[in-house]
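pasting for ref
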Amino acid sequence: MFMHPADAVLLRRSLRRVVPSLFLAGVVMEAFMIYVPIGGRTFYDVAKEKEAERRAEGGRVRDILRMAATPPPPPPPLPVGVDPPQPRGDADDSGRLTPAATSHQQQPAPPMSSTAAASAERPRSRSGGGE
């Protein structure tokens, strides 16, 4: 879509008139908001009050969240003669943990079959395809 040169000139002249007039309209509107009080207050007085309310509300929310993040109090002590609950997991009949549950060492791997051992030793091709 090409423009005729006369249309481009007309558009350029229109923009030269419209853009400065819109700029001046923005300046007038901003000055009105700053200097003209309506009901005894300017726009920026109201905006400052609203922002202060938002910040105060944010502070209250922050305080509530901070209070919720504090750790709960410790549980009350057990009455005399009551045993503590038994730990869950691998326990034998007496309630003691088995050595497998208390050991942090890694268990040895089960032995591999002969075909798995042979395939583990064979180098793989780089192409990733068949042989």
